[in-house]
Structures are given as structure tokens and as C-alpha cells.
Design a protein that fits this description.
Elements lengths: L1 H20 L2 E7 L15 E7 L11 E7 L13 H8 L4 E6 L8 H15 L1 H4 L1 E11 L1 H12 L3 H7 L10 E5 L11 H8 L5 H6 L12 E7 L8 H12 L4 E6 L21 H6 L2 H11 L2
Parallel strand pairs: 3-4, 3-5, 5-6, 6-7, 7-8
Antiparallel strand pairs: 1-2, 2-4
Length: 300
């Protein structure tokens, strides 16, 4: 018994040492454990947290900005290339991140509720997680950009507050980061995204509501957008329409349009793309994340 206790004690000490050496706090949170109003499906909604560790040597009271990440995939699947790689890039710059594994195969508003629940969870637990509750942005790629933008526009809808049992404003993003986003359900729509989100024969009123450039109000959060002019899947007009709509309402917006590059570039390097897909055009777009990190730290 004495040997077992000594061994156990050694293991516990080792664990504490390792905890002190960690460069980040990593956790998987399941939203249905905190929000009983979320629609129950085949699995719980996982949010993976990547939080910079607090350094006693540098600043034990640090409160980090946080980005809630919505991967793309046309509302049909979640692109791995647009989740954790983006989170780790932000983490390396002292920005917390949370990847939402939102449901695919369910219709609106299931995904919207999951993302807004994630924002609320982070805000409610901001002190414990060392997150600045006034600097929580939602980032989305492609169809995930549509979801992120929806979160920025529909956070105050009554059905959201009712379903999540929250106070108005708890779920409001402080900013949106839209990466080659699906925005419009009109002429330049990515039709498959809307079919998966709404069904193949959606109600006209709901399809119109999902054309997000038409839903911008003075309550929309500030935004950062980037796109490529030759995107063959989601036309650049999606970002242009949103930027104009935000500007007309007096909402601050920063936008970067790159002349070349295909759809779905993510971080625009060989960590998330096949070598044959990384040419000079993609590399030229890679500084979007540098501009975005600056925007998060200095503007958000």
C-alpha cells in the first residue's frame, strides 16, 4: 500500500507540473449540457476551446479576445481545413478560439441556435476562461460565413432568446469575420447551401430572409471580409453586397478582395491545401490572416 501511495503521489505531482507547462487550455464543451432548449439530435453539439494559457510571468490578469469559428462545407459537412488550423493560427497570436461543430442535415434555425449558444457560453464563462466578453467575434468560411453572418444579424430575434432561455444581448457577437462567405439567396447564390439549409422547396419568405444583405440593421456588428475575385463557387458579389449593406447602415467594415485564387483556400498555405493547389495566387492571399489578427486586436 505504501508503494502505491508514493507512486500515486508522484503521478499527481507530474500532472501539476505538466499543467503549468501547457501553452493553452483545451476543452470540449457540449452545448446541450448548458442549454436545454437546443434541438436534440443524434449527437450533442461540440465546441472545442483553444484558450491561451495565463502566464504569471507576463500577465496573470490577461483577458483575451475570442473567435468562434464556423467551418464551411455547404451546410452538408464541416471542413476540417477551416476549423482547427484557423484556431491554432489565432491561438499563436494570443487570441482564444472556439470551433463549433454545428449540425449538418438539419434545417434552419438549428445551426444558428448552436452558434449563438456558443457565444453565450463563452460570455457567461469569460472570467474563468480569461476571455474579454466585449471582444467575441464569429468567424465563418463559405457556408460557415453565412452562419457567422446570420449570428451577427439574428442574435436579437425573440425565438432565439426563448429557445436558449437567455437575456437579450448575451448572445450578440461583437464582430463577424466572413471568409469567402455565402451571403445572398438571389442572383449570385450558392444554391446548394440554401437547399441544405432550408430544403429544396423553401418558403419564399424564408429564402428571402436568408439573403443576408437584405437583413442588415444598425444593430449589426462590425465586420471583416475577404474573398477572391475569381471565386468560381461562391461569387465575390456575395461579399460586395454585404459590404455595401453594412456601409449603408454606418457599420464599420474592412474588406480585402484578392484578384486571383480559387474557393476554399482557408489559410492559403500547404498546411491546409494540397501542394498542387498552392501557387502564387494562393500565396498572395495568405496575408488575409495577418490583417484579420490585427483587426481583432486593434479594431474589434
Amino acid at each position: 500500500m505504501i508503494k502505491v501511495k508514493k507512486k500515486t503521489h508522484w503521478i499527481m505531482c507530474k500532472t501539476i507540473i505538466l499543467e503549468r507547462e501547457k501553452v493553452m487550455y483545451y476543452e470540449k464543451v457540449y452545448l446541450e449540457d448548458y442549454f436545454s432548449g437546443l434541438v436534440k439530435g443524434g449527437r450533442k453539439t461540440c465546441v472545442t476551446l483553444y484558450i491561451p494559457s495565463i502566464s504569471q510571468e507576463i500577465n496573470a490578469a490577461a483577458m483575451y479576445p475570442c473567435v468562434v469559428i464556423c467551418p464551411g462545407g455547404g451546410y452538408g459537412y464541416l471542413s476540417e481545413r477551416e476549423g482547427e488550423p484557423a484556431a491554432l493560427r489565432l491561438l499563436g497570436s494570443g487570441i482564444a478560439a472556439a470551433v463549433v461543430h454545428y449540425v449538418c442535415g438539419e434545417h434552419y434555425p438549428a445551426q444558428l441556435l448552436q452558434v449563438l449558444a456558443a457565444v453565450t457560453y463563452l460570455r457567461r464563462n469569460s472570467e474563468k476562461l480569461h476571455i474579454n466578453q466585449n471582444k467575441i467575434a464569429v468567424m465563418g468560411f463559405s457556408a460557415g460565413g453565412h452562419l457567422a453572418c446570420s449570428a451577427g444579424l439574428f442574435w436579437k430575434e425573440k425565438f432565439v432568446c426563448s429557445a436558449l432561455d437567455i437575456s437579450e444581448g448575451e448572445d450578440k457577437p461583437n464582430g463577424t469575420i466572413l471568409c469567402y462567405p455565402v451571403i445572398t439567396s438571389g442572383q449570385y447564390a450558392h444554391r446548394d447551401s440554401f437547399f441544405r439549409l432550408l430544403g429544396e422547396e423553401p418558403e419564399p419568405e424564408l429564402l428571402e430572409k436568408m439573403s443576408l444583405e437584405k437583413q442588415v440593421t444598425e444593430d449589426a456588428p462590425q465586420a471583416f471580409l475577404w474573398h477572391t475575385a475569381e471565386d468560381g463557387a461562391v461569387p465575390v458579389e456575395n461579399s460586395l453586397l454585404m459590404a455595401v449593406a453594412l456601409h449603408e447602415k454606418g457599420i464599420p467594415v474592412e474588406m480585402h478582395i484578392y484578384p486571383h485564387g480559387h474557393h476554399g483556400l482557408s489559410l492559403c498555405d500547404d498546411t491546409v491545401n494540397k501542394p498542387e493547389d498552392i501557387g502564387s495566387a494562393a500565396i498572395y492571399c495568405a496575408d488575409w490572416i495577418t490583417h484579420c489578427i490585427r483587426w481583432i486586436k486593434e479594431v474589434l
